[in-house]
Design a protein that fits this description.
By secondary structure, the protein is an alpha/beta fold. It has two domains: 57 residues, Orthogonal Bundle (Arc Repressor Mutant, subunit A); 182 residues, Rossmann fold (3-Layer(aba) Sandwich), CATH 3.40.50.1360. Helix content is 35%, strand content 24%. It is built from ten helices and 15 strands. Strands 6-5-4-9-12-14-15 form a seven-stranded parallel beta sheet, with helices on both faces. Strands 1-3-2 form a three-stranded antiparallel beta sheet. Strands 10-11-13 form a three-stranded antiparallel beta sheet. The two termini are 12 Å apart.
């Protein structure tokens, strides 16, 4: 396994379990303890984990650069993308938020005359060669780390549109506290998209479940669809009731690498 892939897998394990041990990782990857220690030191220097005696513990996932998050729970994100596009209607106007899971939705949009509005450069790049899609990029202040446009100018631009469907990811999802974000500007942009969209679709893998961030976006009941890779009851803090307004689509058997 090449170094970059191994380090992404280490981050996935940290997100899943909260901690790792050098000896366990060395056995799993069939490398020396020193190799794992170098991996952990490099990830620690980048601010992705905290080293402990004999291992490391997890730090905040949403604060990671987008390029480092790429590859975490990738199989789940791809499967979620496949499920999500099945609930989109050709000809619709769609808000596609930023994020790796939303990017997987963008990559799988079927042929058809969609209008896509997005603040994400990655989403825009993925769709730029599609002559069947009308692409609208929301401007604003460029965020190099997250590869998107943000700020008040972005929010004002969102208000000028009306969409059939909004597709958004999340930093954190909790049954009691709803959807929350690690940055105020992100929460504000998501709320603005929710306000001008007829249908709302939340897409998120299991690593976002049972987590809380400081900035409130919306309650789960605001979404018409919630597509994830595991049953909600496994990760959310309260058992889902049959009467819940949110529709959960679970993809069995998909786990982060």
């Amino acid at each position: 396994m090449v170094m970059e892939k191994r380090r992404q897998t280490i981050l996935s394990i940290l997100i899943e379990d909260g901690h790792v041990r050098v000896s366990d990782l060395a056995e799993r990857f069939r490398v020396s303890d020193d190799t794992i220690r170098r991996d952990l030191s490099a990830l620690s220097d980048e601010g992705y984990l905290q080293k402990t005696h004999g291992g490391a513990v997890n730090l905040d996932v949403p604060s990671m650069r987008r390029d480092m998050r790429r590859g975490i729970a990738q199989e789940a994100k791809e499967q979620i993308g496949e499920q999500a596009v099945a609930h989109l209607t050709i000809g619709d106007t769609i808000f596609l938020d930023a994020g790796q899971t939303v990017l997987e939705v963008a990559k799988r949009l079927p042929a058809g005359s969609f209008t896509v509005i997005t603040p994400s450069l990655d989403v825009a790049n993925a769709l730029s060669v599609r002559t069947d899609i009308r692409l609208i990029i929301l401007g604003g202040e460029w965020d190099h780390a997250q590869r998107l446009f943000r700020g008040q100018a972005t929010i004002e631009a969102i208000k000028n549109f009306r969409a059939n469907t909004m597709v958004t990811g999340a930093c954190a999802i909790d049954r009691t506290f709803g959807v929350t974000a690690s940055e105020e500007w992100d929460a504000a942009a998501k709320r603005a998209m929710l306000a001008v969209s007829e249908r709302k679709m939340l897409v998120a893998d299991h690593t976002k479940m049972g987590r809380r961030e400081p900035f409130f976006v919306s309650p789960l009941e605001d979404y018409d669809f919630f597509i994830t890779d595991r049953p909600a009851a496994e990760n959310l803090s309260v058992q889902q009731n049959a009467e819940d307004a949110v529709t959960h689509f679970s993809i069995p058997g998909i786990r982060s690498a």
